[in-house]
Batch of 3 targets.
Target 1
Amino acid sequence: MDDHRGRVRRRHPHGEQGGILRADFRSQAGDRPAARLSGPDAGLRAELAVSALLGLGVMFGIARGTRLRAGDLDDIVDRWAPAVQAQPTR
């Protein structure tokens, strides 16, 4: 099985080690930012903002999106930042 799902399954931590990794990540990337937000659904808004940041990082660093990497930084920030900022300030 050499499809994408197989590769993800082989690299995905399982068992106790995976549970510890996921709990630590949720704490650092979800709970801590959520604690700094006020208003309703702070946890969801924090997770959505972090997911947008991670998505850009994946596309830029791992997938190496050619158009993204070649794009003007100010233009990218102008297009992308409102989507991220909409969550904490909602």
Target 2
Amino acid sequence: MVQLLKKRGWGIDRVRKHQDWNGKYCPHRILSEGRWDEVKAAIEVELKALGGKTTSKKAAGALTQSKKAILFPQLQKSMG
């Protein structure tokens, strides 16, 4: 994951859980143990060590709920 973030010039702000996209409680063990922030912090440490950016230039480029509805209407129907 860190390599992908660095390659694309993305920061830690682009890291998402499956839950953010489709509502699935995933990664379930990390979430149930309350370690999501810890995992993101570890990714950020590695990203810094590789000289990657910690924040993205375009955080606004992330998909909003309205963009998801436009791009993935079938997902919207199955969740709504």
Target 3
Amino acid sequence: MLILTRSAGEKIRIGADIEVQVVAVKGGQIRIGILAPLDVRVVRSELVDPTEKKPPRPVYLPDGQTPKRDLRRRLG
């Protein structure tokens, strides 16, 4: 396991397509934002069924574009 120290607003990259940002730090909680391609499943570990093995659904876009989903919520 790689352990990194980041402050609010700082980001890390995983490969070329995944970005994780520390959005806020409040007390004992850290809010993170994740930007990833649609074919990358992002889910909290407590929600994962260890027996589930579903393949990602295919996404087809023109000209080789890669769809991304922005899982960051705006703080207001």
